Amino acid sequence: MKALVYHGAGKKRWEEKAPPQLIEPTDAIVRIVKTTICGTDLHILKGDVPTVDEGRILGHEGIGIVEAVGGSVRHINVGDKVIISCITVCGSCHYCKRQLYSHCEDGGWILGHKIDGTQAEQVRIPYADNSLHPLPADVDEEAALMLSDILPTGLEIGVINGKVQPGHIIALVGAGPVGLSTLLASQFYSPAHIIMIDTDDNRLHVAQQLGADTIINPTRQNVVDVIQKLTNGIGVDVAMECVGIPATFKVCQDIIAAGGYIANIGVHGKAVELHLEELWIKNITITTGLVNTSSTPMLLKSVQSGKISPEKLVTHRYPLSQIETAYDVFSHAAQEKALKIVLTAE
């Protein structure tokens, strides 16, 4: 089969690999129908994730058809169309029993990280019963693909960790795919005002279309001044960091109100400066996390009912065989006006 293989920092190649085989009785083999590229994949290619070995097939998101199952798989059948969760869940370890699936002792984020991932024609999924979600026939495949990672991430690590409530003024720093997913998910909780902050005017325009009330471009506006004026000098109730760089985390610290929540969503490859000398007296709560995907079944029902439309985040489409071109586009997202890229197997 063909797959996108990591060959060290800055190096990747679409090449021939041996097809996956069932190893454990809880495994399934899934033929990829659609996959996508995540900002985390770019972090890997930058060398920010040293736990990824050379020779690893990248990718942790996908929609596919089950082609084989191990003898212990009970609820997933050959021929099922499924959503592949970015988090692999054994279901029985110490962390799984606490619903901290991202820390599963034999799973967690392993696809495209510690085992071969989804940017391939086929993929092996451990603990298939817990790590695959059957896809109803009436759900759009592109919408469902957003449930592999970014929509649960925005909801769980941003909105739920940040305790967004009706009437809150919230700010999202970073209008990339994860930030826009968080924007969509936040509207379940009816905040009074949603502020989106980014340096990319195109992404800010998309954010407005998806429900942002105020947009701020730091290259032309003073973020703190605008938010102080908007909130009568108080600040925002929840600030969500959606990028993963020191500058955006600092913005969150600068704009948070006393008693507020800073929810970090972005993947950080460098240390950030924490101004605890200013925050301690403001009763600030800071949360971090890797998505558990426990919200995926609920989000799937919300997509099925039309309450949320994450397929609106898709801007580019390519055949899977053109994944190297797609990476080039995604790596220059601002000039290409790229958000989520869908790669479809031929």
Q: Care to describe what's here?
A:
The chain is an alpha/beta fold and 346 residues long. The protein folds into two domains: 2-149 and 292-344, Quinone Oxidoreductase, Chain A, domain 1; 152-288, 3-Layer(aba) Sandwich (Rossmann fold). The chain is built from twelve helices and 15 strands. The chain has helices at 39-46, 128-131, 141-145, 150-160, 177-186, 201-209, 223-230, 246-255, 276-279, 296-304, 323-331, 333-336, and strands at residues 2-6, 12-16, 28-36, 62-69, 81-84, 122-125, 132-134, 169-173, 193-197, 214-216, 236-241, 256-264, 285-287, 314-319, 340-344. Strands 3, 4, 5, 6, 7, 14 and 15 form a seven-stranded mixed sheet that branches. The longest helix is centred in the middle third of the chain and has 11 residues, at 150-160. It is globular, with a radius of gyration of 20 Å. Its cofactor is Zn(2+). It holds the Pfam family ADH_N.
